Amino acid sequence: MRILVTNDDGIDSPGIRALAEVAATKGQTMVFAPNSDKSACGHAMTLHDPIRILPAHWEDIPAYKVAGVPVDCINVGLISGFHEGCELVLSGFNNGPNLGFDTTYSGTVAGAMEGALHGIKSIALSMGIFSGQGDPFFETGARWLQDNWEMLLNMPIAPPGFLSINIPAIPYEEIKGFQITHIGQKFYEGYLEQRHDPWSKPYYWYRGEVIHKTYKPGTDVYAVFNGYVSITPLTPNWTDHGVLEKLETYLSSASLSSKT
Amino acid sequence: MRILVTNDDGIDSPGIRALAEVAATKGQTMVFAPNSDKSACGHAMTLHDPIRILPAHWEDIPAYKVAGVPVDCINVGLISGFHEGCELVLSGFNNGPNLGFDTTYSGTVAGAMEGALHGIKSIALSMGIFSGQGDPFFETGARWLQDNWEMLLNMPIAPPGFLSINIPAIPYEEIKGFQITHIGQKFYEGYLEQRHDPWSKPYYWYRGEVIHKTYKPGTDVYAVFNGYVSITPLTPNWTDHGVLEKLETYLSSASLSSKT
């Protein structure tokens, strides 16, 4: 099995090292990761600049640093390192959770999404670290992935669908199991902070203080907060299918049918 | 009605000017847009740098250029310009279509998504320009929006749901009407091009040649290609609900139930 490993924290993050080491025990693994931290880059791609790749000089696993974001890593990786095809894309372990609507900002999730758009089985993996807690417990992520590899790989997920997994950042022995989840809600307070530079000019900086006001059973947030690994099936098709019918009803009741 | 206008092509794009002019006839409008082209930036946010805003010195409409991406524009805009709240976010007119899975890369769509995550009615608007065609026909977008304002604003869309609208880049008279659509598929060929710099070192650059191999009735791609404005309801909840049940069945049949 040929495996492409990426992340958004950059090639020097211990998280991608931990993930690549698990992957290398399972298949022919190559790493293509950003040359610097690209956290919260979303599903961006680099259109206006050339994208270069350089060897990262890992001793054991072929690894390259890419002057770009995770989407670029996938595309450059596939074209330059996977001439015989790629069977699996792993993105992570992210140094922090990707839960609730934060999923939409995540470069880690975007890396997996890009793999899935290429028709490849793809999984994003993030460590559920929360405020007041420093250790990302990548070794918990690695052991969990190692132990659940077959179960994950056999899951009935067809690209462009893919998986986003969040693993509580706690000792492995304390993990209670896993839950299949849907995206929950996370709330922020004091989202943007206004500051002033030494010349009294204002600037803004995100604080990103997460206030978990509500989380319901069945959600990703609930699972991780209760010690479970959260496995969420995601899709790049963002159509709000539940609303389509409502809109048609609205249009016909308002005699606003389109000129067909 | 207080309206925040943004885009991803940057404050100097004629598209945002055309959009803001329509908005200004409908409500109290302020513009917060990137200070340079941020196309294909996805739902990124600027975490690692301070975000500054400067006046754009438009004569008629309050407008600011933001050192950031559309998500930043929304957040900085709301905090600095909408102390009494904001009722509508408009993002566009994008200088190009956002159809099919391209939606996932779009900064224009991300701007509307961010507004919707704040609980505000939000609409992304893009001009359906295709290869071999230069004119984005922003005036067609402006007239269509002007004529369909009430219909759009009254649509039963509850945030965090939002709308993505693609308008064919053709003379207004040739627009056949509009269609409520779901996301279709677009295919690329020769996606990344390898080149060599004057020192024979390789680099990569996206070509983004769109090959429209398949598009079905009901999709955004089909509507725009056939002269209709496409209105697609989107959601930031990317959970693949159709797969959730399959996964539970798989787990129970494989006796892989989570440790609950």
Notes on the protein architecture:
The structure is a homodimer of 260-residue chains. The first copy, chain A, is of the alpha/beta class and 260 residues long. In chain A, 27% of the residues lie in helices and 25% in strands. Chain A has six helices and 13 strands. Chain A has helices at 14-24, 70-81, 107-117, 138-153, 220-225, 241-253, and strands at 2-6, 28-34, 53-55, 63-66, 88-94, 121-128, 162-168, 177-180, 187-188, 192-196, 202-206, 210-211, 228-234. The first copy, chain A, has a nine-stranded mixed β-sheet, with helices on both faces. In chain A, helix 4 (138-153) links the parallel strand 6 and strand 7. Chain A is globular, with a radius of gyration of 20 Å. Chain A starts with a strand and ends in a 7-residue tail after the last helix. Chains A and B meet through helix 2, helix 3, strand 8, strand 10 and strand 11 of A and helix 2, helix 3, strand 8, strand 10 and strand 11 of B.
